[in-house]
Design brief:
elongated
């Protein structure tokens, strides 16, 4: 099975990034969501090549890490609140 070309992969990556942006906004990380959206839009608007695919992939991983870290911290706070309540 051949790997997707950047032209095939970029729209899928960009959509995943926008989903991560929505999750960051839901978690209250609006500033980071804006940075991710701006950076991804800039990359997506230029050449659809392998470097762009790698950069978008890195942005998606960063956004997902931020969302996971924020959500985990939020859950810990909820558990503490329940135990104290």
């Amino acid at each position: 099975m051949q790997a997707q070309s950047p032209a095939e992969a970029l729209p899928e990556l960009y959509r995943a990034i926008l989903d991560s942006v929505a999750e960051l906004e839901r978690l209250g990380e609006r500033r980071e969501a804006g940075r991710v959206r701006e950076e991804a839009s800039r990359i997506y608007a230029r050449s659809w090549d392998e470097p762009a695919r790698r950069e978008l992939d890195a942005i998606l991983r960063r956004a997902d890490r931020t969302a996971t870290r924020r959500d985990t911290g939020r859950q810990r706070g909820l558990h503490r609140g329940t135990a104290a309540g």
